[in-house]
Amino acid sequence: MANVVPYAFKQGILKGQHDLSQNNAYYLALFTNAAPYAVGDTSYTSATANQVGTVGTGYTTNGLTCGQGVVAQTGDYTTVDFTTDPTWTSSTITARTGVLYKYVAPGGATANQYLVAILDFGASITSTSGDFKVTFPSPTAGAPSGSGALLSITGNP
């Protein structure tokens, strides 16, 4: 499976459901399988099967914040980068997939925890009593510059 951006995220941009520059509004959750969500899915839920376990692992249900989103222009690409690469310290985790989603604090409308991207790690990645860090690509990654960013929209080529 390759990385997937759900249809609902693209539609959500046009509906005003996302402000990717908000601080601590987007989280990354980890899963043990390759496809916890499909391209047609819309919302994240902590009840989805195969989220990394929390007992003795150092992992927290729902994942960690990605920090402040930074929207920028790189050539013909509008990109998003986050100020925080999620890191589970002193953890023992095996994960195959990361799910980026719009986080709604407890007590909020969890139906509005919109999916943003399903990130395929290509294989199971393991940390053993160490840091499990997901490093997002630079907003200028790829050729042409910006085409390899975590999220990018192209136009006017």
Explain this structure to me?
- This protein has one helix and seven strands; from the N terminus they run H-E-E-E-E-E-E-E.
- The strands form two sheets. It has a four-stranded antiparallel sheet with strand order 2-1-5-6. It has a three-stranded antiparallel sheet with strand order 3-4-7, with no helix packed on it.
- The protein is 6% helix and 38% strand.
- The protein has one helix spanning 7-15, and strands at 26-31, 64-65, 69-74, 77-82, 87-102, 115-133, 151-154.
- By secondary structure, it is mainly beta.
- The protein has one domain (7-154).
- The chain starts with 6 loop residues before the first helix and ends with a strand.
- A hairpin with a 2-residue loop joins strand 3 and strand 4.
List the helices and strands and how they pair.
Layout: H1 7-15, E1 26-31, E2 64-65, E3 69-74, E4 77-82, E5 87-102, E6 115-133, E7 151-154
Antiparallel strand pairs: 1-2, 1-5, 3-4, 4-7, 5-6
Structural class, from secondary structure content?
mainly beta
The total beta strand count reads: 7
Question: Largest sheet, order of strands side by side?
Answer: 2-1-5-6
In this structure, how is the largest beta sheet organized? Answer: 4 strands, antiparallel
Number of helices: 1
Globular, elongated, flat, extended or rod-shaped: what is the shape? globular
Beta-strand residue percentage: 35-45%
Ends distance: 28 Å
Low-confidence stretches: none
Task: Give me the oligomer status.
Answer: single chain
* Helix-strand pattern: HEEEEEEE
